[in-house]
Every structure is written in C-alpha cells, then in structure tokens.
Amino acid sequence: MSDSKRFSPTDIPHRVRSALEEAPESIKSWKQQVRENPSAVFDPTLIRVGIYIVAGLLLFAGMYWLVGLLTPEFDPKVWQEPTAVATLYVACTNSECLQHSTVKKPMDFAAWPIDCGQCGQATVRRASVCKSCAQWSASDPETGRCPVCVRRESEQNRQREQIRKKRSTDPDDLEDGWG
Ligand SMILES: [Zn+2]
Ligand SMILES: [Zn+2]
Known about the structure:
binds zinc ion
C-alpha cells in the first residue's frame, strides 16, 4: 500500500480549501442557471426528496388515522387475552352491614360500587385498613368517612346519652353535682 493512497489528516485542510474554492463556482453556476431559466430553481433532485418527505409524512399520518379509526371496531374477543385478576379487599358502606371481604376482579375493574353479599345493597367499595379504628372499611362516598368509625361514634354517643338521661332522672346523681 502506498502512502499517497492512504487518507492522511494533513490532507484535510487541502481538501476543505479545494471544496470551498469549488463551492462558490457551483453556486454561481446554479444562480446563472436560475437567472436564465427560473424553473431551474426547482431542482429535480430537490423536488424528488421533497415529494418523498411529504409522501412519508402523509403515509405516517394516514396510518395513524387508520389505526385510530379501526381500534374501536376491533372485535373485543380478539383482545381477550387472559386478563390479570387481582384480589381486592372490599367493604360494605351500608352502616347497618359493614361486611368486609375479598373479591377477585380484573386489574382494571372500575364499576364500583358492587352488590353486597350480606345486605344485598350496591354499597360495596374498595376497602383499606382505617387508621382510626384499624378495621377494614371503605370510606363513605358522601362523607368520605370510615363507616365503622361513624357507627362507633354514634354508639358511644348513644351510650353517653343514656348515661346522661339516667343521671338526670336519678335524684342522687343530681345532688352529687356530677356534671
Ligand atoms: Zn352490606
Ligand atoms: Zn374507622
């Protein structure tokens, strides 16, 4: 292999210079062509490249549109691959029931609430352990509160009320001056 045929970094400045020297010439000749024949501005190569780009974009947009158009019409059975099923903790928000259990539902199940197996009402929702009462419960959709806590509070209130009533009717307690 001779040295002259090998690419040498020292050639680069020379090559760049010669390219720069040629470039104005080719631009000048192109300008000359355009001046003589304005249609020469539409270089066939450029036009072809432009057409390819536009065609590619149109094809992409078309595919995108087509996929969007067809997707809802696909037979759901085609897509019924084994759905991931999750075991979910649920609880009834009916204050008279409050039953909690687990159910198996698809991962993307969203049709809450579901029917309660105990009281029959459609009041069963996703459950979590309540931070206050440590019971499995689903917060009431209207109040956002734990129904177990609410029931406990009302029971406590009822007991307090009973004690108060008992005291108020008991003459001894009144004299003791408890309150
Ligand atoms: Zn229930
Ligand atoms: Zn609670």
